[in-house]
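Please predict the structure of the following assembly.
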Amino acid sequence: MGSTAEVAVAARDVSFRYGDNVACDAVSFEVARGTVHAFLGPNGSGKSTLFKILSTAYPLQSGEVTIFGLDLARDVRLVRPTLGVVFQSPALDVKLSVRENLVHGGHLYGMSGATLEARIDETLHQAGLADRGKDRVADLSGGLRRRTELAKGLLPKPRLLLLDEPSTGLDPGARIDLWRFLRSLDQLTVLCTTHLMDEAEDADRVTILRDGRVVADGTPPDLVREIGGLVLELTCADPQALGPRVAERFGVTPQVVDRALRIERDGAHELVAPLMEFLGDEVGRVSLSHPSLEDVYIRKTGHRFWVGDPEN
Amino acid sequence: MPLGPTRLAIYSLWRREVVRFLRDRTRVMSSLGQPIIFWVLLGAALRNASVTVGDTDMSATTYGEFFFAGTLTMIILFTSIFATITVIEDRMQGFLQGVLVSPVPRSAIALGKIGGGATLALGQALVFMCLAPLAGVPLTLNSFVLAFAVLVMLSLALTGLGFSIAWLMDSTAGYHGIMMVLLLPMWLLSGSMFPVQGAHAILRVVMQLNPMTYALAALRQALYGVESTQVQGLPSPVLAWGVTAGFMLAMFALGAFVVRRRTVRDAT
């Protein structure tokens, strides 16, 4: 990426341990200003730890991070006012109203008086909560609470908005609304974590994590283009045995993923009929698709997104 | 004049404590009702018990009167405990994480929480003070002001202590445990229910090491005056006020110290 002026976040060799467990292992990435950058990974991939480091909730154990040119370890007091943070778990006081939560949030960022009131009105309007100001948070639905969280995060006009799993608890319609809203905010850099492929596909750039390491980084089209062609998947009882036979007969290099053989190549669709003839009953199901980020993940890790990654 | 960012944050955190308390009707009723019930019942049950302080004849003092100052400190203790237990709830419910990543200095978080809890404790103690004439405690403007000053120091000290303990705890159940083995005995062994002088020698040593003993002594001296027979045998006013003020400052410092460090618990 380009000069410091274009970079919102730059991280180099960030590692984090919980005792003996390594949650992040030499993670490096850059986030361009004004873009939406997604960290994609299954549970336990280290994305939430990374989020907590960037949000300043966790101290930086090793590595370097700069946010708008400020050193995260040294200048944390200067970094904090530039951030809007929306955690995965709710950070609202359910006993207070929506407006009271925002007033409190504004006070923490040094805002008060008429300026704060006007900014709250503006943010509530932006978030579609204009008529909800007096409602107690305890009485709101999950989707409205999420929007309130977002309004609280945006209230101090952050330069970088950090969102941890922003779609948690949202139905598909609300998710689309959320992203349309985030896209409408000019000059804002958004960094989010997600375990949803389609959410990551909508980002400008994606960093894919597994077991605390970066396995891929790029724009979604570039990452998908690396695979090229189509993805053919054969579900079968014994893919280990079938692999060499298919490789020899068709001159391809199949990858064994769980109980399936995967073949990535141009014109993979032409192999469907010959493969079915060749393998007969040994194949349970055949699927053919354009590559997605999930295929990028599988290619880089040899694992499916969900399989083998314990819940954390 | 607008407040600076740090004072604004302290004010906001303080205000939140008060608003949340006033909105919780059950909490308001129980925290006021419980000490009154305790005082009335114990006062009635022990009305024939004589209070002896050294060689002084205190037969004119009813137990209800003796226990009045103890009840005031009990109100302060319990309110401080229940106000600071919200630190654990704030952490568990996620509210705290948003505060911790904001530009607010950590000491402001401690000050806002301790100030809020102390205000609640003090407010309730003042309501109970209205019952002084019923207890036979002679309340004048002078004694009220002095007692109020002692209660301010004790509220801040106990809220600071409660805050520091709560900050380090992961569960409210654990905090209740600490309350039973540390905070409640601190109150019992402060001269609140029985005079220090009449206690067993070992207990007397413990009571003399207990900072709450001095707060209670300062409170009795404030209510009755230093010449009164009611305060005979208590630590001198200078010692009582000095230890109470030191206790407050030490607990404030402890609160500011425990919030200082960022750990992984801050975002859980």
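The radius of gyration of chain A is 23 Å. Chain A is about 35% helix and 30% strand.
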